[in-house]
Amino acid sequence: MTDSAPATDRHQLPQEADQGHGHQGEPDEGGRPRGDGPRSVTTQGPTATAESGTRFPRPAGPQLGEGEQIPAQPGTAAMGRLAGAVERLQRELQHAHLQAEGRALIDLAKGILVERLGCSPAEAGRQLDTLADQAGLQVLELAADLVNQASRDRIAELARDFVATTTDPASPSTGLRLRSAEAGALAGDDADAVAQSILDNALRPLGARAVAIWAAHSNQSLTLAGSAGFSEHEPDRWRYVPPGVPTPARRALDHRDTSGFDTLAGAALSSIGQLELPGGRLVVPAGTGGRITGAMEICWAEPLPEQSQALLRQFEVLATLCATVLETRPAADDRTVGKDDPRFTELLDLVDGLDEACMVLQPLLDDAGTPVGFRIRHVNLGFVDFAGRPRNLIVGSRLLEAYPLAAEPGGLFEKVEHVVATGEPFRADRMYLAALVDGVPLGTEARVAISRSGDHVVVTWRLDDGTPRVASLLQHAQRLGRIGGFEEDLLTGEIAWNDTLYDLHGLPPTAPPIALEQLPAHVHPDDEHAIGRFLRTLLHHQRPASTAFRLQRADGIARHIRVVAEPVLDDTGRITAVRGAYQDVSAQHWTEVALAATRDQLVHTEQHAAERSRLALQLQHAIMPPSRGTQHLHNLSVAVRYRPAEKDHLVGGDWYDAVALPHGQILLCVGDVAGHGIEAATGMVALRNALRGLAATGAGPAQLLAWLNSVTHHLTDNVTATAVCGLYQPETRRLHWARAGHLPPVLLRDGKATTLPTIGGLLLGALDHTEYQEDEVQLQPGDTLMMYTDGLIERRDRSVADSLDNLLTIAQMPVAMPAGPQEPTDLERRLDLLLRYTNADTDDDTCLIGVRVG
């Protein structure tokens, strides 16, 4: 497309394309042709939809089967010419839109040249053509480059990245596509025009088929601000999304990040265009200044293509355009539209002050000035739709679109026409109002008042019961529960389905419903018996029945469905109809399957964990029994206590040892391997046995811990541990000791308890090579030395220092002397006292050695 291409003003279209939204020449809402404008053809058959989304009446009569030829009928050629004309007009309209967007981009470039060169707009245009010709570029390409250089925004940055990375000179310019989309967004009259510009210029070249712009609200609801690429009536079905409805846009907004979904069915989400575009979705939150105001949803017919980082950045730029649209083009307000009409503004002020539900209707006139319909221009804050629909689905629609049953003789439409024609107000204490929601008629009785105010009609009603609330609850329950209702007349064969039921069966709304007797042909073969039993109970025994089955849909998707139905009997007891509901229980079914599998896996895991804990406990007890009598090693009395964790699955790696070595010294040690379970228990065994073997060399405690550190680092699997190692010389009563990250021993002398001086030493296994400090203490007859693991003192509610102070206090408490030789010694009693009163709460193992010097 170049600057010299022929232009068509989007606002000056051939007369046959004008659908007359709210202007003269509109067809009657009831199908009656008025005036000389374009007329709608009224037929009795269902309507067919062309690929372009324009709906054409289908001739009445029997419908054709697959492969049948359309017989020649009068008017068939005229219908073909009409379809061709509409398609041609749509192509021209799209071409006009693209040219308008291109002209906007070229005008921006001309403005830049005017500012830089100081020339006139005409000279800037000629200069732009000359520069494009010299550079071998299209005018649009050069215009986009100029705007990128001048703006230096994110689009310009993406364009530079594209030029730096692409090697294909024939590939479309990222800068041109984004600039054209931006130009169209700035020139667009509403969010739909902006969405169309983004789709045509930036997304279609990437394979996308449609785009939706969602506005987010503080109550977690969404409204469809603009869309492009969907069928004619699809946006109306998704104009409002209540809070709590799982959609791709809601998911992305909750995470505040770009979210991709391979397919809607795979993600178990619903969204606009889900039947015509069931493929991938990409949702980009849209916002400015750190505030998220909505989201842009991009739709593909196929599964979501792989998205590179460069493409994601382009989508973020487009989402920023959408955010600008949401900020600068809010939904049209009736007061803004009518600001030039003070009488209309006064009318809105009046109706907004009423407590009763009130709507303002605008007559739609034909060429002769006769009303052919009424558009709902405004509803007040007190307006309550008796069918439970939100206000934004009512405003802007025609009266017979929102309430088609109002066209019945003596109904609301006829009363409004009478008021407009005569000017006489109408009042009724009881008037029947009805609406079709999801194909189900919902009605109520209300007190209605109709009056004319200038060029508008004011309708108020007061509902006498809770019908709107019940209807709203029913709609939300059906939607959230994926419930579709049906009624089948067994005498006439007529079947009524609501929209949800078509979705459950994967059928378009124009498809014929499936009769109950045909249901066995659409279920899984294994479920045919269940369906047969259901039909016998319902039709033969004439009793309510229900069953669950697997529905085999035409699109190849299998759904788990539950059907509930009841017979309708006449006065003679003969069954005349069947009514009921289908519910999609696929999610519950797969949840139950997943829960069953998880439950089985959990049982297996628990059994495995219990077996590992049992083996670890047996290993621990085999090496270190929980208690044993006092040992006498030369002039030392040694008592030990081992307290397992309170929970069996927390079997730890605590260990101790007290053994006389070949060279006469006595090895005293306590250690704690990090962790729990079989790994900690086996690590404990390895370290305990290694230290025994190393101690036979006669090396000192510091050297022993250095060697044990190497063993821990190289010969065990990611094991770390703490330890205290002491070598006692019986002849001199001298104790040499070292520590590796462990708590210091406690010495009790003359009734006073103190800790040995803290010396340096890193825990075992942390580093490959490390050195340990060594200290010595001269023990005296009557001294008691206690070595322990942290399970003795640690508490979650106090520090280690406080726990040590508490341990020293308890160690100084007097103990009773044994009364007989069979009772525990005073050393054992002291260890039992420590275990009883230290009150640790970490559920860890505890090892405790008490040494009395004789």
UniProtKB/TrEMBL annotation:
Biased composition (Polar residues): 40-52
Protein name: Antitermination regulator
Location of region: Disordered: 1-74
Gene3D superfamilies: 3.30.450.40, PAS domain (3.30.450.20), PPM-type phosphatase domain (3.60.40.10), Winged helix-like DNA-binding domain superfamily/Winged helix DNA-binding domain (1.10.10.10)
InterPro entries: ANTAR, Bact_Sigma-Reg, GAF-like_dom_sf, PAS-assoc_C, PAS-like_dom_sf, PAS_fold_3, PPM-type-like_dom_sf, PPM-type_phosphatase-like_dom
Highest taxon, organism lineage: Bacteria
Domain ANTAR residues, every copy: 86-147
Keywords of this entry: Hydrolase, Transcription, Transcription regulation
An example molecular function term from Gene Ontology annotations: RNA binding
Domain PAC: 545-597
Pfam families recorded: ANTAR, PAS_3, SpoIIE
Record field: compositional bias (Basic and acidic residues): 8-37
